[in-house]
Design brief:
alpha/beta; 12 helices; 41% helix; Sugar ABC transporter substrate-binding protein
Length: 354
């Protein structure tokens, strides 16, 4: 893919290369070298179908929470940037909001406008499930972004990060570091995002499962609501409650700004910390190597770029050109990379700003 923006659309924020390659394949015009004719089976499918070639004009509606958070802001920017790459796409975003009823009303307006496809990042999948189902029942394919709708009939395709895998990546980094240091019975703290969300619960489960393989467990866990202010408050409380800490996993680099501020204020540095999502701020801290933040595990907002591209293919009746199947898959899960000082230079230009 020669377009630099298109490439950034799939790799920014540290999405795992393998997963990025899978989704990039849906628009690739230059497939990898094929085996020779003698080696290929006679019934082998044709190579890439040129999905970037302009096709039927489609209108893609887009709804997401308010961009009051670096990751959410990057979601909106990635979606818009992806849509602008196609002359056959009319991008129709609605006002972003953190109010459930307002988001339902916004999606209702897109259904009434009879858009060709919908990309929805719901504030809460459970509460937005009914309106997504209404869109699907009206014949409008829904690409469910990240926070999943519980009813599979409510969406055509889901694309999102691997929340469980994110926790696993953080758990393995912390577990291995503590084992290598010979720490026994470590104090490990976990600062979640919004505790009631399934994505947070998946992250926590992955973290606990990975730590268990080293014989470790989480000492204390508290949620910080994905905000800087809450991150500061929660971290301050945890620091006061634990006079000795060995490691902290903070689920979200945006709230991590507040977490790190509280740590600096307390003058604590006897532990190391792992972040989450892959923000540019976190990467710069990791690169500097002067604080407690040693790593972050990615959860890339580039999934929004991919969601828009998938919505276009679905609305135009196309599949992913590097796959044998004629239809876009029902679900695509991106993987989580671990960014450390050793590889941060590779990812830093691709991080999102908090």
């Amino acid at each position: 893919m020669s377009n630099p923006l298109a490439r950034r659309g799939f790799l920014v924020g540290g999405a795992v290369i393998g997963a990025g390659a899978l989704v990039t394949a849906c628009t690739s015009n230059e497939p990898a070298a094929q085996p020779s004719a003698a080696a290929a089976p006679s019934n082998a499918p044709a190579a890439g179908s040129g999905n970037d070639t302009p096709g039927e004009k489609v209108v893609i509606g887009f709804s997401a929470p308010a961009a009051d958070h670096g990751w959410i802001a990057a979601i909106a920017k990635n979606a818009e940037a992806a849509a602008k790459q196609y002359t056959d796409v009319e991008f129709k975003p609605v006002e972003p909001t953190n109010d459930i009823n307002a988001q339902i009303s916004a999606v209702e307006s897109l259904i009434a406008a009879k858009v060709s496809a919908l990309v929805i990042l719901p504030n809460d999948g459970q509460q937005l499930n009914q309106i997504a189902r209404r869109a699907s029942d009206a014949g409008i394919p829904v690409v469910n972004l990240d926070r999943v709708f519980p009813d599979k009939l409510s969406y055509r395709t889901w694309i999102g990060g691997d929340n469980y895998g994110m926790g696993v990546a953080a758990g393995h980094y912390i577990g291995k570091r503590l084992k290598d240091k010979g720490v026994a019975d470590p104090v490990i703290l976990e600062i979640q995002g919004i505790a009631t969300l399934p994505l947070t619960q998946d992250r926590s489960k992955g973290f606990a499962d990975a730590l268990k393989t080293y014989g470790f467990s989480v000492t204390a866990q508290q949620d910080a609501q994905f905000t800087v202010e809450s991150g500061t408050e929660v971290a301050g409380n945890l620091l006061q409650a634990h006079k000795k800490i060995d490691a902290i996993w903070n689920h979200d680099d945006d709230q991590g700004i507040g977490v790190l501020a509280a740590i600096k204020e307390a003058g604590r540095n006897e532990f190391f910390m792992v972040g989450g999502a892959g923000s540019a701020n976190a990467m710069r801290d990791i690169q500097a190597g002067t604080g407690v933040l040693e790593a972050t595990v990615t959860y890339s907002p580039t999934m929004a770029s991919s969601a828009v591209r998938l919505a276009r293919l679905i609305a135009q009746g196309k599949g992913m050109s590097d796959l044998v199947e004629n239809e876009v898959p029902q679900s695509i899960t991106l993987a989580s990379e671990t960014i450390t000082k050793e590889n941060v230079a590779e990812y830093l230009p691709l991080g999102f700003e908090s």
